[in-house]
Amino acid sequence: MHHDAIRANAAHFAASTDGRLMAVIKADAFGHGHERVARVVLDAGASWLGVASSEEALALRAGGIDAPILSWLNAPDADFSAAVAADVDLAVPSAAVLGAVSRAAAQLGRRARVHLHIDLGMAREGCPREGWSALCELARELQLQGSVRVVGIMGHLSCAEIPGHPQSRLERQRFVNAVLAARRRRLSPNVVHLAATAATLTGDGAGFGLHRIGAGLFGIDPSGSSTALRPALSLVARVVASREVEAGTGVGYGLDHVAAARTNLALLPLGYADGVPRAASGRAEVLVRGRRRPLVGRFSMDMVVVDTGGERIRPGEPVTVFGPGDAGEPTVAEWAGWAGTIEHELVTRVGARVARVHRADAPAGSSLGRTA
């Protein structure tokens, strides 16, 4: 995991947006290590951190992170007392969650910091538009009672990765209307935030004071509109065995691949349990001795096989599964295409038994960042 790339990406967003940067480091910072990444992005200019669950926020607090943290995905029976006591901001999508947060704060004799969350059209988290007025009224009442303080209003765009999509314009106007409705009820949020990575890059989320950047921190561009982002993750494995095989030799379960001629095979100790997607079987490539080589046969739970042609690869030699692409290795984007998925899924699925190597910097063309 390349800290220099994350730092550069965070600094790019901090400098290029029209407001403050919230670094979204949910799911262990997209698999990159939330505590280390938190320190890198805060140093690079982020003023907020964002996570899904309150447990993630509390883990950051336990690690000594004292920056503002927002958690936006919690059930009504979550442990809000711990979150309020740790000064974690909480998104509230319903009267049930708002009431639970208020009661937890009242029992502690504190005022909870909340962000009212509206669903703009995704039918996921967030308050349905028809219930927004009632949620604002309740928030105003609880704020007057002293148990909560509405510090933010948030929403999320459903089609932001498609530049200029008409749904984004519709949802943006819905968000503006929701903010105006809250202010008519004498709520005065300090921060209003709509844009995540894609909406920030396309400009569809411009004009609001806070940008929630997650995937972009790690070099992932859902919109395909930026050339400034640097991939932050490499996956490297070392060969554990190699052999020469004759034409007609089958490889792997089902013998889906049969060698067309005499060739060499190298075995890597990575499989779908480690995040190498089985759906990419028969399509993916890796970098061996500076040259791309195909992975052959079905991917197994613990291993994959590389056809190295006329080269006999020694056990212990490194093979780059993916990386920034500077040295010709496949990128995460290519792997996503081979597997029929998105880059976000691949980087978050790298398994726990894969050793993490954190690098403060990496020379141009370096492919070392994660090893197995």
UniProtKB/TrEMBL annotation:
One of its GO terms (cellular component) is cytosol. Pfam families: Ala_racemase_C, Ala_racemase_N. Residues 232-359 form the Alanine racemase C-terminal domain. It catalyses: L-alanine = D-alanine. The active site is at K26, Y253. The modification N6-(pyridoxal phosphate)lysine is found at K26. Pathway: Amino-acid biosynthesis; D-alanine biosynthesis; D-alanine from L-alanine: step 1/1. SUPFAM superfamilies: Alanine racemase C-terminal domain-like, PLP-binding barrel. Its EC number is 5.1.1.1. GO terms for biological process: D-alanine biosynthetic process; peptidoglycan biosynthetic process. One of its GO terms (molecular function) is pyridoxal phosphate binding. Catalyzes the interconversion of L-alanine and D-alanine. May also act on other amino acids. HAMAP family: Ala_racemase. Belongs to the alanine racemase family. This is Alanine racemase. It comes from Agromyces mediolanus. The lineage of its organism: Bacteria, Bacillati, Actinomycetota, Actinomycetes, Micrococcales.
